[in-house]
Structure to design on (280 residues):
C-alpha cells in the first residue's frame, strides 16, 4: 500500500513538473513536452523486455515456473509501453516533421521490436500450456531482446532524423538539456518505472491465481 | 501553444492505456477469484459427500 501511495505522489509530481514547471522549448514549442511521456515509455518498454530476457534465461537454466510467469507478465506490460512509444512518437512527429510516420531506422526497428513481443504473446496464447510452450517462449524472449540495443544505438549507427539520445548520451548525461528539463524527465522516468512495477506485480499475481485455478481443476478431475 | 492539442492527446492516450490495462487486470482477477471460489466450494461439497458415504 505504501508503494502505491509513493507511486501516486511521484506521478502527480511528474505531471506538475511537466505541465507547470518545465519551460517551453524555444524551437519546438509546447509539443516538446511529449518527450516527458515518450522517453519514459521507451525506457520502461526496454526495461520490461530486459526482464523478459533475464527471466527467460533463468527459466531455461532452472526450469522453475516462477521465471516463466515473470517473463510472460513483463512481456505483456512491456507491450503496453512499447505501444505507447509507437503512439506518442507519431503525435510528436506530425507537427515537427509534417508526417505521422516515416520508415526511419529508429522507428522501423521499434516497430519490429513491438512485433517480436506481439509474436511472443501470440505464441503463449495459442500454444498448449506446458513446459514446451515455456521453453519456446523463453527462446523467443532471449532472441527478441537482441533488437533492444539495436533500437537504442540505431540513431548513432545510421543516418536518421530521430533525435539523438539525451539522458543516455555518449557525452555527459542529459547533455544539452536545461537542469529543470532534466529533473522533469528524471521524475517522469521514476514515475513510469514505479507504474511498471505496480502493473508487473498485479500481472504476476493474476498468473499465479490462474495456476491455482488449473491446479483446482486438475484436483477435481482426479477426484471425480 | 498551437500544438497544445497534440500534447493533451498524447497525455490522454497514455493514461487511458494505463488505466484501461489496470481495469482489464482487475476484471480478469475478479473473474479468476470467482472461479477459484466456485471450484473450492465444489471440492468441499464432494469431500463432505465422500465422508458421509464412508460413515454410512
Amino acid at each position: 500500500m505504501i508503494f502505491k501511495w509513493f507511486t501516486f505522489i511521484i506521478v502527480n509530481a511528474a505531471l506538475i513538473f511537466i505541465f507547470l514547471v518545465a519551460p517551453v522549448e524555444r524551437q519546438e514549442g509546447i509539443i516538446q513536452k511529449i518527450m516527458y511521456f515518450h522517453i519514459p515509455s521507451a525506457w520502461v518498454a526496454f526495461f520490461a523486455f530486459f526482464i523478459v530476457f533475464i527471466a527467460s534465461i533463468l527459466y531455461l537454466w532452472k526450469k522453475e515456473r516462477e521465471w516463466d510467469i515473470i517473463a510472460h507478465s513483463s512481456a505483456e506490460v512491456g507491450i503496453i509501453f512499447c505501444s505507447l512509444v509507437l503512439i506518442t512518437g507519431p503525435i510528436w512527429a506530425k507537427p515537427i516533421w509534417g508526417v505521422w510516420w516515416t520508415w526511419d531506422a529508429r522507428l522501423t526497428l521499434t516497430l519490429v521490436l513491438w512485433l517480436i513481443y506481439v509474436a511472443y504473446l501470440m505464441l503463449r496464447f495459442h500454444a498448449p500450456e506446458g513446459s514446451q510452450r515455456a521453453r519456446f517462449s523463453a527462446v523467443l524472449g532471449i532472441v527478441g531482446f537482441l533488437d533492444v540495443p539495436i533500437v537504442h544505438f540505431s540513431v548513432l549507427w545510421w543516418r536518421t532524423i530521430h533525435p539523438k539520445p539525451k539522458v543516455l548520451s555518449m557525452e555527459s548525461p542529459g547533455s544539452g538539456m536545461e537542469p529543470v528539463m532534466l529533473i522533469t524527465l528524471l521524475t517522469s522516468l521514476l514515475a513510469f518505472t514505479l507504474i511498471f512495477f505496480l502493473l508487473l506485480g498485479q500481472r504476476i499475481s493474476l498468473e499465479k491465481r490462474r495456476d491455482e485455478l488449473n491446479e483446482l481443476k486438475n484436483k477435481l478431475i482426479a477426484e471425480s | 501553444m498551437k500544438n497544445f492539442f497534440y500534447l493533451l492527446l498524447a497525455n490522454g492516450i497514455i493514461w487511458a492505456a494505463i488505466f484501461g490495462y489496470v481495469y482489464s487486470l482487475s476484471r480478469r482477477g475478479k473473474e479468476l477469484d470467482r472461479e477459484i471460489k466456485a471450484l473450492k466450494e465444489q471440492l468441499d461439497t464432494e469431500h463432505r459427500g465422500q465422508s458421509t458415504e464412508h460413515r454410512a
